[in-house]
Amino acid sequence: MYMRIGMKISPLTVLRAGIPNYIFHLLKALADVDNQNDYILYTDRPVPFELDLPDRFRIATVTFPSRHLQLWYQIGLPMQMKKDGIQLYHDPVYPLPFVLPVPGVITVHDLSNYTNPGVHKFRSALSGKFFPAHLRKAKQIITDSLYTASELIRLFSWTESKISVVHLGISDSFRKVTSLSVLNSLKERLRLPSQFFLFLGTLEPRKNLPRLLEAFTISCGKIPHSLVITGGLGWKYEKMLELVSDHPFRERIHLTGFVEDRDIAPLLSSAEFLVYPSILEGFGFPVLEAMACGTPVITSNVSSMPEIAGDAALLIDPLSVDSIARGLIEMGSNDSCRKEHIEKGLERVRDFSWRKTAVETLRVYEKALT
Questions:
Q1: What kind and span of H or E run contains 276?
Q2: How many domains does the chain have?
Q3: pLDDT in tens, 112-159
Q4: Planar angle of CA 254, 321, 217, nearest 5 degrees
Q5: In the β-sheet with 253-257, what is the strand arrangement from edge to edge?
Q6: What pTM, to 2 d.p., does this model score?
Q7: Which has the higher per-residue pLDDT, 281 or 234?
Q8: Distances (CA, A) of 147 to 25, 108, 113, 155
Q9: What's the domain range around 123?
C-alpha cells in the first residue's frame, strides 16, 4: 500500500538529544527499510545539519502565517498538507493540529507534562492541558514503552485499542571505544578525572540530580571515583548547580556541559559506570547507550527503566538517597559486579535496533489508513 506521509521534524532544529535523536534515527531507518512511500518533512525553520536522505524524503519549511504561538503548525501546516496530497500525518512529539485534514499518528514518549506539569517549562506544562484532546484526535498512538502504554490506559482507558508499543533503537555508533588517542584527546578537552562514574542527561528536575549528589556525599569515603555530570541545561536547574557548588566534595565533581554526539561513546567508554537515577522516563536512551559501550549501569526501578534495562542493570530506588548510595558503593567497589553487568548489558542491547523500530512504525502507519 503506497502512502504519502507527512512528519513534523522541527525538533531537529534544537540540540540533538532525546526526541530529536528519535526523529533523526527513525528517519534514517525508514529510509533504509522503506523504498515505496514518500515523506514530506515539515519544519518552521531550517534544520542546521544535513539529513542525507533519499529523494523520496523532502523537507518543507512552513512559516505561514507566523512561527509565533505555533500558528505555522495550527494554520499553515494543515493547508500545506492539503497542497502536498498528504494521506497520513505523524507527529513524533504528540500534539496534532486542531484541524487535521488526514488521519494522524502521534508518539507519546511520556505523560509527565500532563501528570506532573510542575517539573516542566510553562509552555510544555500548558500543552499538557490539551493532551486528552490530542489522544482523541489521533487515529493511532505509538508509545516507546509498555510502561507509557500502561499509564495511558490507566488514565484514558479508551486509548487501549489505538496503542502500539514500539521500542526505540540504539545507534551503531555506540560501541566500546578503545583508541587511546581518542580517549586521551577527550580526557584532555573535557578535563576528565582519571577514575569516574558518569551522570548523562539534561539538567532538569526529573533527572533526580539532588538525590544523586546527596548519595555521592555518603559514598565518597568508600569509593575512589569522581562524579562527572554531562548534559545541557534544561529547566529549574539553578538549584542543582547551587548544590554542586556547595557540595562538600566539590573537587570530585566535574561538569562538562552539553557534549556533541561524537563524544558520547568515548565518554561512556571512559567511565567505570553510568548512574541514571531518573524519576520518570518514557524510554531512557543513556541506559542502552552505556550498555552498548560496555559500561555497566545503575538506574531506577521505576517507570520504563526496568523494562528497558531488563536484568542487565543494577536497579535502585530513585526516591531513596540510601538506595542510590548503596548502588554507587556496590558498583564502585565490586569488580565482579561491574563485570557481570557489562556482559549482561552487551547481551541486552541486541534486542533493540532502529531498523526494528522503523518496521514496526510502518505497521502503525498502515493500521492508521485501514
A1: strand 274-276
A2: 2
A3: 777 766 654 545 545 557 889 999 999 999 999 999 999 999 999 999
A4: 40
A5: 253-257, 226-230, 196-200, 274-276, 297-300, 314-316
A6: 0.90
A7: 281
A8: 22, 11, 16, 12
A9: 4-169+353-368
Residue 368 has pLDDT above 90, yes or no: yes
Tell me the DSSP string of 12-66: GGS-SSSHHHHHHHHHHHHHHH-SS-EEEEEESS--SS-----TTEEEEE--SS-
Q: Which residues pair with 229 in a beta bridge?
A: 199, 255
The predicted pLDDT at position 67 comes to 87
Rg (CA), the chain: 21
Backbone angles phi and psi of 328, in degrees to 5: -60, -45
* Shared domain check, 269 and 124: no
C-alpha distances out from residue 42 to 45, 53, 97, Å: 9, 14, 13
CA 111 and chain centroid, separation: 14
Could you tell me the pLDDT band of residue 15, with boundaries at 50, 70 and 90? low
CATH number, domain with residue 196: 3.40.50.2000
H helix runs in the chain, sequence order: 19-33, 71, 77-84, 112-115, 122-128, 131-137, 146-155, 180-190, 209-219, 238-245, 261-270, 285-292, 305-309, 321-333, 335-348, 354-368
CA distance 210 to 236: 12
Same domain? 344 vs 363: no
C-alpha cell at 271: 567511565
What distance in Å separates the CA atoms of residue 294 and residue 297, rounded to the nearest whole number?
Answer: 9
CB 141 within 8 A of CB 135: yes
pLDDT in tens, 232-268: 887 788 888 899 999 999 999 999 998 988 999 999 9
Where do we find the cell 542525507? Answer: 52
Instruction: Give strand pairing partners of 199.
Output: 229
The HSE-up count of residue 111 (CA atoms within 13 Å, CB side) is: 23
Collapsed DSSP state (helix, strand, coil) of residue 86: coil
